[in-house]
Design goal:
With 226 residues, the chain is an alpha/beta fold. It is built from 7 helices and 14 strands. It has a single domain, classed as Ribonuclease Z/Hydroxyacylglutathione hydrolase-like (Metallo-beta-lactamase, Chain A). The chain has a 6-stranded mixed β-sheet, covered by helices on one side. A 6-stranded mixed β-sheet has the order 7-8-9-10-13-14. The chain binds zinc ion (ZN) (2 copies).
Length: 226
């Protein structure tokens, strides 16, 4: 499995490009900023793999500007260069927030173009098959009402461990802030305990910001939810 993870933008949101090495199908999670860097990495992965990459989905953990800021440019350049794919996916409860991208940016004196329409709203527990990659969606409200975590299931055929992309819900020894519109501390703690801490100890966690961790470590050591 090809997993290229890198921080983008002033807020250092972790963006991920995940590709099935057998089919060349892939996804991008949280294209928050620096669309040119994302395009360049896609091209590098493609030349290393030696076959064309087809990005099927742009998955978003939630609709804060630092996670959706480059969605429009990335989708437009994929359409231009590759013809199809890159369906924009989001939870419906973050639809308003997504539509307010320009307003979110204005508060920080950042300019954004109007966001493109969302192509697909996730259902809770929905599954996505991308080449040999299998993802499932866990709705984990609290940081925002429509926050989700994406679980990538283990698959030994492509050396893929079980990985959780936790957005701004769960961090290394921390959790996301809940003082922004749509946030709720009580709901977030419930989401983490009921939807994330039930996963296996050795599930790798890639948070929306900062370094990776493991479910077992957080269950024992996270001061906010353990
Ligand atoms: Zn956020
Ligand atoms: Zn964030």
């Amino acid at each position: 499995m090809i997993n290229v993870s890198f921080p983008v933008g002033a807020f250092q949101c972790n963006c991920h490009i995940l590709v099935c090495p057998l089919t060349g199908d892939g996804v991008i999670i949280d294209p928050g900023d620096e669309p040119h860097k994302i395009q360049q990495l896609l091209a590098e992965i493609e030349s290393n793999l030696g076959k064309p990459i087809s990005i099927q989905y742009l998955f978003h953990t939630h609709a804060h500007f630092d996670h959706i800021g480059a969605t429009r440019s990335v989708k437009e350049s994929i359409l231009q260069n590759r013809g199809a794919g890159a369906a924009i996916c989001l939870h419906r409860q973050d639809k308003r927030l997504y539509g307010f991208l320009r307003l979110q940016g204005a508060v920080l004196l950042r300019r954004y173009k109007k966001p493109l329409p969302v192509d697909h709203f996730y259902e809770d527990d929905e599954e996505f098959f991308v080449g040999r990659l299998k993802f499932s969606i866990r709705h984990t409200p609290g940081h925002t009402a429509g926050s989700v975590c994406l679980l990538l299931h283990e698959n030994s055929e492509i050396q893929c461990p079980e990985i959780l992309f936790s957005g701004d819900t769960l961090f290394y020894r921390g959790v996301g802030r809940t003082d922004l519109p749509g946030g709720s501390a009580e709901t977030l703690i419930k989401s983490v305990r009921q939807r994330l801490f039930v996963l296996e100890d050795d599930t790798v966690v890639y948070p929306g910001h900062g370094g990776k961790t493991f479910i077992g470590y957080e269950r024992r050591n996270n001061p906010f939810v353990s």
